[in-house]
Amino acid sequence: MTSEDLSATELPASNSLANRYGGQKRGMARKTKRNIVIAALVLGIAFAAYVATGSAQAPVTFKDIGYSTIDGTQAEVDYQVTKYPGATAKCAVKAMDSKFAVVGWKVVEVGPNQPEENADGGRTTAQRTVLRTESPAVSGVVDSCWIVDSGK
Predict the structure, then answer these.
(1) CA 98 to chain centre
(2) CA dihedral defined by 116, 119, 121, 123, rounded to 10 degrees?
(3) In 16, 28, 34, 75, which residue has its Cα 20 to 30 A from 52's Cα atom?
(4) What is the helix (H) or strand (E) element at residue 50, kind and residue range?
């Protein structure tokens, strides 16, 4: 039998597949698998700690209640701020015209409040801000609020 007489069908199947697709892969070592699981657990715990501390550092929320236009040069914005009672926050309040252009803007400070006998322990306070406007406003909202660093 010569090499010309051999066909691909006469080669053993395992040699044919190994030549075509490569040899068998070795599985991961037990130590490598264990290290991957430990690394995944450490990353999971680190992520949970990051999320927990991130929400503790930004504990201020706001809710728009309403607005009113006093005249062509003033608007009032009513809103609620929820934060830790001892914290000081600042809120950016804006008045807008019918084309959503900002016609009045003011940053107001919401100081520490006394814990009161209400459902949330004095965390939520009602605020009213009067804004001077350059033209008549048709809406007023809180743009954002943030906690002021107490170290300043």
Answers:
(1) 30
(2) -100
(3) 34
(4) helix 30-57
